[in-house]
Amino acid sequence: MRVLKRLLPLFLASCLLLASGCGGKAAGEAREAQILDSGSLGKSTTYRLKEIQPEPLGHSASLTVSESWQFVKSIRSGNSELRLKEICVSRGQHVSAGDPIAILEGLGSQADMELMRLEISSAEANQKELLSYYEGALQAAEGMSSSGAERALRVEYAQLELEKYKLQSDYYLSSLYSQLSVLEAEAAQVVLTAPVEGSIRSLNTRLSPGDLVPAGTEVCSVYADAGLRFYGNSSSGSFVYGRSVSIRISKGSRSQTVTGRVVSSPEVVSGVFPTNVVLLELDEPAAELLSTEGEARVSYTLLDGVYTVPSGAVKNRDGVSYVELLEGDTVRSRNVVRGPSAGGNVTILHGLREGDQVVVSSYNS
Prior knowledge:
Layout: H1 2-21, E1 32-36, E2 44-51, E3 55-65, E4 72-76, E5 82-87, E6 94-95, E7 100-105, H2 110-142, H3 148-187, E8 189-193, E9 198-203, E10 212-213, E11 218-224, E12 228-232, E13 244-251, E14 254-264, E15 278-282, E16 294-310, E17 315-317, E18 320-327, E19 330-335, E20 337-342, E21 345-350, E22 357-364
Antiparallel strand pairs: 1-2, 2-22, 3-16, 4-11, 5-7, 5-10, 6-9, 7-8, 9-11, 12-15, 13-14, 13-16, 14-15, 16-21, 17-18, 18-19, 20-21
Helix pairs in contact: 2-3
């Protein structure tokens, strides 16, 4: 009993010494532990630790938004000279994709087309009449009562005349129809339609119904709806179709953050969008944006419920990856199997358990 009483104060003193030498508990990487070096009086090592818990491994990337922050589509006439029949919109008008913008007509003659149709009708009637004639001549030859050799010769001649006429008349009708197609194409209507939903930004006021429209003339331009605001070049594969984004823009001391999603990217490109840009659509169209420049940021989860450590905590020895763990007041190494990395973190597929204290960094004092 006397021995126990003598040892009790020493035991309590040692407990107080350990309590004063260890840092308080904190979750994750914020926790630090200070261990006294028994070999050098007064010196200690402070370890920055991460407690292992299941968590998601995420990735993020940013995209600088260019000055062209609202998508504009120019609408031009065709590849040949046309005549304006009607402009169907006005400046500032809202349009949906496929709505008519303007109607133009070819310069071909309607009278020439009507004459060609009459000529085709006459040729078809004439062909029908003459086919009946040649078919009748063949039947007459086949019904002759003359000798077999003479009748066979007349039948062969009648068949050749019939086939010859069919070839000639079919070729003639085909050429007439080809000429009619050319005339119709020259006089056909061309309807220009809106490629995207939006509003008419500008309208060519120099054009009036009846005017000649040279090939490639700009008729109007369409501002895409308020959602399609930003686009910029990006080599990052993070900005893929459908991924959610956060967009921060600023002007002076004011800043504004909006959210949206990717609606066009290099691997999924709509025909009306440029192929070298990423287009972002706002979740809620903003009536006014502060600036024409900004930064879009995207974050997403690669793996969920995995063990992750800062990449600097994983070391290599003879081709084998390992981490250092603090167990009590002792640092031990343990081999691990690395998984995918994202940013400054790396997954550990094997070798760690929940609650392990991984040494992230250390320093002596």
